[in-house]
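Consider the tokenized backbone below.
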């Protein structure tokens, strides 16, 4: 009896400690250790199935997480459908016809709810899914901090004003990331997420037709499926060399002027990030380490914790 009493006291102490962490805005990797111990394996299993079905999905989920965190913090707001009381983020300029993977998050949420009802936020599920997608394509892993709660509203105007454009200059990129507490080094490392995934013709047309800092042969190849007008939704890999492998080829591409987006090539264009791009292009371990650290920092952008927000039962809509 004494042993059981002590064990219960320890569990209670741990639970109260978790609550205290959440209350003061601190995330913790062990947040669900007692309330949903199988969470990470549930998310990993579903992401494995999704990525095996379509390799591109890892990049899509990673992009969802980035676009969530940069708009009022990592609060799952990007997952909300429009309602009569607010216009959400899904159809904002940077997201319309391009953000995807919502069905995968729905599936994971359903699986998590079956195991741990009304316990795990959609924001945390998205954070875990983004990490697992990177790992599944051969990228680095990191410890995901948990304890975020979900927003009860979303803002299309915030999405339009907070997300960097594919036409951004280097100074605009540095400023955009700095406003979220991320350094220029973090920005350059996080841009390496473009080693996977695809982009729409509309986002890189101006770069391949109008910019001088682009390899002519590369531009010619891209023009074959991205005409000067029309074909806006035609896709091209962000990394032509290994589009479904998370590696450092993105930076190697930049060094030879084969960045797909204007904003990509801005990282290597006789500017402040040239030396770091060169380092990442030859040192995959340095890139992996910096990327993992920057992902943790990005995941810490203005989370809702404690009694803020809610634990959504359906990631697409607020609880009634």
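A designed sequence for it:
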């Amino acid at each position: 009896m004494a042993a059981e009493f002590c064990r219960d006291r320890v569990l209670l102490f741990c639970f109260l400690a978790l609550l205290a962490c959440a209350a003061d805005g601190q995330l913790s990797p062990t947040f669900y250790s007692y309330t949903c111990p199988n969470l990470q394996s549930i998310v990993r299993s579903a992401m494995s199935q999704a990525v095996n079905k379509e390799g591109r999905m890892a990049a899509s989920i990673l992009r969802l997480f980035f676009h969530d965190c940069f708009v009022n913090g990592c609060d799952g707001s990007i997952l909300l459908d429009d309602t009569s009381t607010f216009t959400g983020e899904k159809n904002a300029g940077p997201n319309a016809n391009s953000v995807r993977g919502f069905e995968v998050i729905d599936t994971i949420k359903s699986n998590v709810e079956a195991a741990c009802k009304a316990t795990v936020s959609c924001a945390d599920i998205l954070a875990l899914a983004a990490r697992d997608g990177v790992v599944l394509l051969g990228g680095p892993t990191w410890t995901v901090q948990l304890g975020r709660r979900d927003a009860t509203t979303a803002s299309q105007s915030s999405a339009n004003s907070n997300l960097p454009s594919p036409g951004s200059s280097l100074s605009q990129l540095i400023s955009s990331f700095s406003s979220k507490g991320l350094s220029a080094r973090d920005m350059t490392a996080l841009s390496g997420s473009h080693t996977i995934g695809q982009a729409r013709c509309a986002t890189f047309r101006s770069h391949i037709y109008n910019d001088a800092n682009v390899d002519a042969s590369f531009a010619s190849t891209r023009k074959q499926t991205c005409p000067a007008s029309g074909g806006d939704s035609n896709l091209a890999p962000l990394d032509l060399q290994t589009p479904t492998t998370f590696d450092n080829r993105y930076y190697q591409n930049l060094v030879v002027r084969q960045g797909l987006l204007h904003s990509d090539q801005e990282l290597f264009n006789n500017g402040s990030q040239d030396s770091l791009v060169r380092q990442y292009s030859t040192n995959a371990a340095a890139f992996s380490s910096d990327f993992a650290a920057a992902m943790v920092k990005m995941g810490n952008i203005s989370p809702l914790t404690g009694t803020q927000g809610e634990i959504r039962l359906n990631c697409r809509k607020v609880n009634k």
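DSSP finds 14 helices and two strands in the chain.
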